[in-house]
Design a protein that fits this description.
The chain is an alpha+beta fold. It has one domain: Tetrahydropterin Synthase, Chain A (2-Layer Sandwich). The protein is 19% helix and 47% strand. The chain has two helices and twelve strands, in the order E-E-E-E-H-E-E-E-E-E-H-E-E-E. The strands form three sheets. A seven-stranded mixed sheet has the order 9-5-1-4-10-11-12. Strands 6-7-8 form a three-stranded antiparallel sheet, with no helix packed on it. Strands 2-3 form a two-stranded antiparallel ribbon. A hairpin with a 2-residue loop joins strand 11 and strand 12. The longest helix is centred in the last third of the chain and has 16 residues. It is elongated.
Length: 167
């Protein structure tokens, strides 16, 4: 039997810039005030809860802080030309060229900085952070709202303490 808890918004938010790519094109540089919704599914522990709300929120808020006021770089893009030096990233698309200090960039191992891919990356990070608090977790679903009414979702299934295919 599984139970589920939900954590939403409030401290689970970050502001970040990005540009998504689509159909061989690239959006202009812009930003969002992202808000997260996280569902955590698993059996009740000895104290009759899936996971401590406070500890879970603290862990997820720390991940959000890594992205807050950063440029989200899709490191695995097949459209952008990305070069990296010791101190900066250079990102190019056709005639556009951006040079950003590394300290201002969250370089993620994703192919596009869409809400869906951010949700997928965040789900894996949340599981990594929470697995020690409840090793029997069964699924983590993350929703990344980039604007009211626009949310990308991803569910990470966990089987025997290992990531399984999305559900």
């Amino acid at each position: 039997m599984s139970h589920r808890i939900t954590l939403e918004r409030h401290s689970l938010r970050f502001a970040a810039a990005h540009f998504a790519t689509f159909r061989g094109d690239c959006e202009p540089l812009h930003g969002h005030n992202y808000e997260l919704m996280v569902n955590i599914k698993g059996p009740l522990q000895e104290d009759a809860w899936v996971i401590d709300f406070t500890l879970a929120k603290q862990s997820i808020a720390a991940i959000c802080k890594e992205l807050d006021h950063k440029f989200i770089l899709q490191r695995n893009s097949n459209v952008l030309r990305i070069s990296e030096s010791e101190t900066e990233f250079e990102i190019a698309f056709r005639q556009r060229r951006y040079v950003m200090p590394k300290a201002d960039v969250a370089a993620l191992p994703i192919d596009n900085s869409t809400a869906e891919r951010l949700a997928e990356w965040l789900a894996a990070r949340v599981w990594e952070a929470l697995a020690a608090l409840n090793p029997a977790l069964r699924a983590i679903t993350v929703g990344v709202e980039e604007a009211p009414g626009q949310t990308g979702w991803y569910t990470l299934q966990i089987v025997d303490g290992q990531q399984a295919e999305a559900g």
